[in-house]
Amino acid sequence: MPGKVILNKKVYNTIVASCVRYANTRIPEEDWLEIYGILIGHIEKKSRNIIVSEAYPITHTMKKGHILKVSYDSPDYVDASLIEEEAYSHDPPEFIVGWYHSHPGIKVMFSQDDIKNQLGYQTNNPDAIGLVFNQVRLVRQVELARRKGDPSKLLENDPGFKIFRLKDPSRGVEASYNEVEFEFSDCEITHSFIEDAKVLVGDTTKLLLKDNLVEHTRLNLEKQMEKIKGVYIGTESYLKTLIKKGETSRISGVVETQKTELDSLIKINQRDIFKLQELIYYVEYKERGEVIFKMKDLFEKWQNETTALIKSFDELKSKL
Ligand SMILES: [Zn+2]
């Protein structure tokens, strides 16, 4: 008998962010896309528990010919084998133990296509699992009905996903499936676990844009930097006016107020950058090299510019 699935918070966050990136409140519902990824891990000998250590988003729904579907392109097969090759070197050696995909706003279950895909995994590894995530299930804590109009069921502390395995893969596409029990190795699914997950949904929606991520982030940071520089320049010219008018006693107070404004502007963006430093690891495998490299560059540039600006601001008082 195959055992249960043991995940960790990092795997879960990767699944949540990679799925929400393509289906969230910033995107019209009719444009929500499915995402497809793989699960890396190993199987414990005695218990046959599946220990999932990492999740890798691979691809999302794209137009293939005339239809929209989520499936591997040839480079994706190469990526999956690269990931697996690297995983073999872990101790204990790891491999692809299953896959995950999203049903954005759709009931968490296996469709006919999902059963076909799962057959591929279970043919290679009878214990292989398939995880299905729906962000609406997580955010609203409801189990959506299979058909529109049917009542949905209220949930409590539900992570938004289920894990499935085919009962008898030898029956091919006729095979039915079971839910597989799961737990987390590094946390319990409590109310605060769900609240954290919802914060991640919000941050992903705001910051991890699906298209032109680097370019959007760059433009946004530049815009914010202009605002911050504006505070500095404004303060400087105001202080000069005060000096001209001989009202030097007011300098100190003006500098204090303006410094508070500058700090709060920086702090808001600092939080986003801090979040983005985590989120960039949830992009698709093929994007990782470029996105992570370029985003780190942007963060560094931002850091240098703000440090310099704070320094010049602090020097303002003594300079004048
Ligand atoms: Zn599906």
Provide tags for this entry:
50% helix; two-stranded antiparallel ribbon; 2 domains; binds zinc ion; Topoisomerase I, Chain A, domain 4; alpha/beta; single chain; Cytidine Deaminase, domain 2; eight-stranded mixed sheet; 320 residues
User: Uncertain spans, ≥5 residues at pLDDT below 50?
Assistant: none
State the end-to-end CA separation: 78 Å
Whole-angstrom Rg: 25 Å
Q: What is the CATH third-level topology name of the largest domain? A: Cytidine Deaminase, domain 2
Class from secondary-structure proportions: alpha/beta
CATH superfamily of the largest domain: Cytidine Deaminase, domain 2
Classify the beta-strand content into a percent band: 15-25%
Report helical residue fraction.
40-55%
- Count of discrete structural domains: 2
Total strands: the figure is 12
CATH C-level name of the largest domain: Alpha Beta
Shape: elongated
Describe this structure in words.
The chain has 320 residues and is an alpha/beta fold. It has two domains: 5-207, 3-Layer(aba) Sandwich (Cytidine Deaminase, domain 2), CATH 3.40.140; 213-319, Topoisomerase I, Chain A, domain 4. The chain has helices spanning 9-20, 74-88, 112-124, 135-140, 191-207, 213-244, 251-279, 285-319, and strands at residues 5-7, 35-43, 50-60, 62-64, 67-69, 95-102, 129-133, 142-143, 153-154, 161-166, 177-179, 182-184. An eight-stranded mixed beta sheet has the order 11-10-7-6-2-3-1-12. A two-stranded antiparallel ribbon has the order 4-5. A hairpin with a 2-residue loop joins strand 4 (62-64) and strand 5. Helix 7 packs antiparallel against helix 8. It is elongated, with a radius of gyration of 25 Å. The model has no long low-confidence stretch (mean pLDDT 93). Bound molecules: zinc ion.
